[in-house]
Structure formats: C-alpha cells, structure tokens
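User
Please review the sequence:
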Amino acid sequence: MDAVAAARKQAETKARLKRALLQLLETRPYHDISVPEIVLAASTARCTFYRHFPTKDDLLLACCEEHFAGLYRHMQEEPSYTFHDMSLGYYSYWDEHREFLQLLQKRDLLQFFASNLDRFLYSVAAGAHEAEDGSAPPAKMIYHFFCSMSAMSGILMYWLNSGCKESAEQLAQFYVSFLAEGSADDPDCRYYREHRTYPFKPMLV
C-alpha cells in the first residue's frame, strides 16, 4: 500500500470512529460509552482504535477539532477586517452546525468543547502574531485575546442554552456592542473615530 492510500485508509478509519462516537452519544451518556462499544459501532478493531486515539477523550477531542478546523476555514473564506466580520463568521458557522453543539449540550460536554476551542483559536492567533525570533506574543495581547474569546464564547453558550433564537447577525451585533459601547467616546476606537457614531443603538449596562 502506497503512502497516499495508507493516509486515505487512516483518515477513513478515524472518520468511522468519530461517527460511531457521535451516534452513540445520541442515545447514551458519554461516560457510559466504552471503547469496545465504539469499535463495534465503527466496525473496526480495538487495537486500531488505540493506534489512532490513546483515549476516548482524544476521540471526542478529534470530533471537536474537526469542527474547529471547519470554523477556521469558514472564517478564512469570509472577509475578516473588522470585529463584526470576525464575529459574524464565528457565529454563522456554529449556527450552521448547531446540531453538533446541541448534542454536546445534551451530554454535558460543552465545557470540554469550549476549553479546547479557546486553546485551538489561541494557537491560531499566536501563530499569526509570532515574532520573527519565535518569541511568544506579549502578555497583554494574550490576556486581551482570552478576554475577547470569553465574551464571544459566553454569547454562544447563552444562545445555545436559551434555544438558539437569535440569528448569527444579531449575535455578531451583541458581540461588537459589548466591545465598543463601553468606550463610545474613546478616541482610540477606530470605528467611532472614522464615523463618529456606531451602527447600533447603545445599550449600556
């Protein structure tokens, strides 16, 4: 078997295992699902499972990372020149894939998802801002990143827990207003500096 065929076979096996876990999660709590049940549902062998995933948590993480990569591709395909563009890309992806989030919600796995999403997005952002000498981004940038991501994820989690009533555009507006309304008179706020107004009615809290 050549390298291309071997890589394709490995990808197909991983995909079967991920599908099997998600199918089992439809009817069973995560902690009640065993590796033997997963390999049986995936029509593969236990040794094959451990060749690809050290633990069941690693398989669940792979299911999440598939969506993380999809989110990244989606946001790369859309213009992301402003906070609104960035947040709209983020929320529109999860709106389209809300079934995955609802499944995790049903099985109390959202914290696992959210913590690993933040880690994934930070790795992308850190790579994009890595200094020429390979040093880490400044601490201020790191803390600002996690502050903004906590707000973005918090909006997503509330939207999910409250029944997914709002559109992706509405969620993006909520996020942008959170970032901007607290400093409507700040001369360093780019949008306000250019337009002397905001594209929404302030709702200060």
In short: The domain at 3-53 is CATH 1.10.10 (Arc Repressor Mutant, subunit A). The first helix runs from residue 3 to 25. The chain has ten helices and no strands.
